[in-house]
TrEMBL record:
<feature type="transmembrane region" description="Helical">
    <location>
        <begin position="81"/>
        <end position="105"/>
    </location>
</feature>
<dbReference type="GO" id="GO:0016020">
    <property type="term" value="C:membrane"/>
</dbReference>
<keyword id="KW-1133">Transmembrane helix</keyword>
<dbReference type="InterPro" id="IPR013525">
    <property type="entry name" value="ABC2_TM"/>
</dbReference>
<keyword id="KW-0472">Membrane</keyword>
<dbReference type="InterPro" id="IPR026082">
    <property type="entry name" value="ABCA"/>
</dbReference>
<dbReference type="Pfam" id="PF12698">
    <property type="entry name" value="ABC2_membrane_3"/>
</dbReference>
<keyword id="KW-0812">Transmembrane</keyword>
<feature type="transmembrane region" description="Helical">
    <location>
        <begin position="111"/>
        <end position="132"/>
    </location>
</feature>
<feature type="transmembrane region" description="Helical">
    <location>
        <begin position="47"/>
        <end position="69"/>
    </location>
</feature>
<feature type="domain" description="ABC-2 type transporter transmembrane">
    <location>
        <begin position="3"/>
        <end position="133"/>
    </location>
</feature>
<protein>
    <recommendedName>
        <fullName>ABC-2 type transporter transmembrane domain-containing protein</fullName>
    </recommendedName>
</protein>
């Protein structure tokens, strides 16, 4: 499960990344951020509204996934709270990379496709590291 679980998470959340990136770029295309500033809304509140909406969406997924993994007997000896924290950490890293990738694009459809592609490409070093884990020293693993 050490190799299959991270791969399954990465593959299952590719659509989330595409959706989050497309939503941010679409808002930028429509210039909603500027309209909100003209109406007196603080720019930070616009960011936090997106963050809370996306985090709640991912949090619901993480809760369901934690229940399935614990109640389904897939990870019976794992602490449910630690598993929940691990999945939340991964979910927030998905949000962070989505926000980062969205800042590089101006067109919605290109951003969604490229965002999911960049997310998958960023995961490839993990796959290489898993395969080379036995041949690497501790200091090199820590550096990677």
């Amino acid at each position: 499960i050490a190799f299959a679980f991270p791969m399954a998470l990465m593959i299952s959340w590719v659509l989330f990344v595409a959706h989050f990136v497309k939503k941010l770029v679409h808002e930028r295309e429509l210039r909603l951020h500027e309209y909100m500033k003209m109406m007196g809304v603080n720019p930070i509140s616009h960011f936090f509204a997106w963050l809370i909406e996306s985090a709640v969406f991912l949090l619901a997924t993480v809760i369901i996934l934690t229940i399935i993994l614990k109640a389904g007997g897939i990870l019976p000896h794992s602490n449910g709270f630690v598993l929940f924290l691990y999945l939340c950490d991964y979910g927030f890293s998905v949000l962070a990379i989505s926000f980062l990738v969205s800042s590089f694009f101006d067109k919605t459809n290109i951003a969604g496709l490229s965002g999911s592609l960049i997310y998958v490409i960023c995961f490839f070093p993990f796959i290489v590291l898993i395969h080379l884990e036995d041949n690497l020293s501790f200091s090199l693993k820590s550096a990677l």
